[in-house]
Amino acid sequence: MIICSCNVLSDKQLRQAAEEMRADPDARLPTPGAVFRKLGCRPRCGGCFPNVIDIIHQNADKAGRKAAAPLEGEPEDR
What we know:
By secondary structure, this protein is mainly alpha-helical.
């Protein structure tokens, strides 16, 4: 299903790019912008971001990756 009509990106493409990014042992959870860059695109209107965020983080818990940044006052996982 097409999620981003501006760049004509499907849920499958977004999910696969996010999974490839998480496969890096030093990777953090991918952001929508990073996933778009991996696919050779850049975000345009941003209307798809709520769906993009849901898709790229669907399997993040299973991957066990670090969060994008530690919360203030919390130690970073190593």
